[in-house]
Design brief:
By secondary structure, this protein is of the alpha/beta class. It has one domain. Helix content is 30%, strand content 24%. It has six helices and twelve strands. A seven-stranded mixed β-sheet has the order 2-11-10-3-4-9-7, sandwiched between helices. Strands 8-1-12 form a three-stranded antiparallel β-sheet. Strand 3, helix 3 and strand 4 form a beta-alpha-beta unit. The chain is globular, with a radius of gyration of 16 Å.
């Protein structure tokens, strides 16, 4: 099993923390430096390997054990698989792309759709405010990204309530489950802090 980059000592650490401090929303667009790209290919949490059916069965068991207050799915394939296996996500973050190739929009059950622009390799300020709005909803909500959602797991972990389960796909391996704790949020924030602000060209 691949060693998680952001995994804490256990998936859930409810007993050790009373309240998690949420991150401040950046005031400008951030871009991922090339030296961090390879590092982020490692799982951010618990890697669940196997076929879609196997990973969804294991994910169901994990959800049964952990009882997360919210579930966030990041990515088209993982959202599709969760929907087909009757795993309800409160928030789904999609970009109609798989491995950077455009696909036909997948069918997912949501009550509301929010739209946001986020160019590849970046995190726009709009991304933060849109996901923050999605997390406030009381019904299943889809965030449809014009651009790329690859880095939005960072935003989801940063903004989600304590013990939220964030799930995203790990290409050719399975899915990754990240429980939001003080430790995972701190490590995600360290990556966000290492990102560089986009300098706007003067007119």
């Amino acid at each position: 099993m691949t060693k998680p980059f952001f995994a804490s000592s256990s998936l859930s650490e409810r007993g050790g923390y009373k309240k998690i401090k949420k991150s401040k929303i950046p005031i400008q667009t951030l871009i991922l430096p090339s030296e961090l790209r390879l590092k982020l290919k490692n799982p951010l949490g618990q890697l669940i390997t196997g076929s879609p059916k196997e990973t969804m069965t294991k994910l169901k068991q994990l959800i049964k054990e952990e009882k997360p207050p919210k579930i966030i799915a990041v990515g088209d394939v993982v959202s599709k698989n969760m929907t087909e296996h009757h795993i309800t996500a409160n928030t789904m973050i999609l970009d109609n792309r798989v491995l950077r190739k455009t696909i036909k929009p997948i069918k997912v059950k949501t009550e509301r759709t929010l739209h946001v622009k986020n160019p590849p390799g970046t995190l726009t300020r709009e991304t933060w405010t849109t996901i923050q709005e999605a997390l406030k909803q009381n019904q299943p909500t889809r965030v449809l990204v014009d651009g790329e959602e690859d880095l939005l797991t960072l935003v989801a972990v940063s903004l989600a309530p304590e013990n939220t389960l964030v799930v995203y796909g790990q290409p050719n391996q399975g899915v990754v489950a990240v429980m939001v704790t003080m430790e995972t949020r701190r490590k995600v924030q360290s990556v966000i802090d290492a990102m560089q602000p986009v300098v706007e060209k003067s007119k």
